[in-house]
Amino acid sequence: MIKLYQFAPAFGLPNASPFCMKLETYLRMAGLPYELVNSGDVMKAPKRKLPYIDDGGTVVADTSFIIEYLKGKYGDPLDAALSPPERALATAFQRLLEENLYWAVVHTRWVQEDGWALTKAAFFGAMPIPLRWVVPSLARRSLLSEMRGHGMGRHNAQEIHAIGCRDVTAVADFLADKPYMLGQQPSSLDATAYAFMANLLWAPVDSPIRRHAQGRPNLEAYCQRMKARYYS
For the chain, what is the domain count? Predict the structure, then answer.
């Protein structure tokens, strides 16, 4: 049995971490049985980040490496039939979501004070005292340092919102009226797109990026479609 180590669900979502939600969605899409371990303990994670899996003693970290491992061991029901151009598009949109839009959304959750209040409660509210007094500020400081190292943290709020809105526009325009990101059949890209779009649309953290996404009805319809198919 695959054990999926992740944060506990929050914000009414399977996970408030889009990476944890991505991996659980992939497991559901691929039809792989799994057990959730919602410990939220990053200190035990191989790379000090969640999620990671333990598959009968084989521990794998990072969602991209985990999915490649799962494909190699259990087969590839979602992506095996993709053409090289489709694989290229999937890689490009995965990078847009995970390496760019992610950091714009991090700003709304970890820098904006209203977003930080919600984020702190969601990720750290269950911690015992005194950890609840110490860990959130340390985690926030670390993530903001990572954000500055990435480059997103060197922009002001207005610039970050503009970057995030452009990413959302690209996703919405590419999705258009297709049922799934690459067409009529779901692919592993949809695990990523759904996790990130649902976290943007449905988490109660207001921002210009969220409002921009709410103005693209095909994104809401897409998330509802994915939820009905894989989380009903």
Answer: 2
128 and 174 in a single domain? The answer is yes
Domain span holding position 172: 84-230
Average pLDDT of the chain is 95
Please report whether residue 146 resides in a domain: yes
Query: Among 43, 74, 105, which residue terminates a domain?
Result: 74
Contact yes or no for 4/34 (Cβ under 8 A): yes
Statement: residue 215 has pLDDT above 80: yes
Q: Are residues 205 and 94 in the same domain?
A: yes
The answer to whether 167 touches 97, Cβ cutoff 8 Å, is yes
| Average pLDDT of the segment spanning 138-148 | 92
The pLDDT assigned to 64 comes to: 97
> Based on the domain organization, do 102 and 52 belong to the same domain?
no
Q: Is a pLDDT exceeding 90 seen at residue 129? A: no
Question: How far apart, in whole angstroms, are the C-alpha atoms of residue 54 and residue 44?
Answer: 12
